[in-house]
């Protein structure tokens, strides 16, 4: 009897050690990705992007480290150096090319042999590349928004809405970033493409800013006659919301006197669409960092996404009052809990021929 008890205890101990060893072994294989936000912790757009990426990483059993650049390209670079010099350095980097610093950032990744994926803003000087890896082997790929189409969709939606409201003479004020900002330049290009389809619409001017509320207000104050402006096309939701408040302070009504829209799908902007303070927002690229997580997962698990592509463009869609609830219908805090992000992985779904980074599919899952 005593021998049987000892044997049972021994078996339990051996089993416990096996379970413990398995847990340690699994933890050691769990990949850690460092993500670098160009903004600070209060930046709404980057917060939503990071939160989404964490939801994806959690479902794929990956770790996420977050670094904030505080709107300073040099701080971004220092953060990368700091992350790379940790005792256990990250397995991968995800970052945007802040203010044209893509070449600089990928060289830091190369120096420390850390595979990287650009998100939101890609390789500025190498847009025509068919593969990011022909530029740098540590630049595994990039997931960036289709900014030109976003600018086009924004302009088209605003013009059609103004026309439907009975506006015969339409004049646009465009507010964007500086000319050297690749994303903003592409968005403006898309707007100009839309204007060719509506030759009766007048472009008053393109105001360049640093994306801030202060410079947005300064651009609006330069307008001598606000009543002549029918549409404010803004390259970001923050600038659109600032414009909406500005026109309201001058006694002009959004949705009646003027039609205002932006890009980003920030929660604040979508709530403003619902209340009538904005006409539209074009977005969906909040998911780009999450898509990059899926690419990393497959890459680390033996399925290199380069077999399909290294350059991925995320589609962006306009939301207006009648369809904004598609995105606002779920509780923001728990929005992604029920989404099976594992279904987007080729490793976990061998039958997938192409990555389905589809916004419509994602929103349906979120419901």
Short characterization:
The chain is an alpha/beta fold. It is built from 12 helices and 12 strands.
Report the count of strand segments: 12
Helical segment count:
12
Q: Uncertain runs with pLDDT below 50, 5 residues or more?
A: 4-28
Oligomeric state of the chains in view:
single chain
Q: CATH superfamily of the largest domain, called what? A: Response regulator
- At CATH's second level, what is the architecture of the largest domain? 3-Layer(aba) Sandwich
Mass-distribution shape: globular
Span between N and C termini? 58 Å
CATH T-level topology of the largest domain: Rossmann fold
Question: Which CATH first-tier class of the largest domain would you pick?
Answer: Alpha Beta
Q: What is the number of domains?
A: 2
- What's the helix-strand series? HEHEHEHEEHEHEHEHEHEHEEHH
Helix content: 40-55%
CA gyration radius, whole angstroms: 24 Å
Reported for the largest beta sheet, the result is: 6 strands, parallel
Tell me the fraction of residues in β-strands, as a range: 15-25%
Average residue-wise pLDDT: 89
Find the structural class using helix and strand composition: alpha/beta
Strand order of the largest sheet: 2-1-3-4-5-11
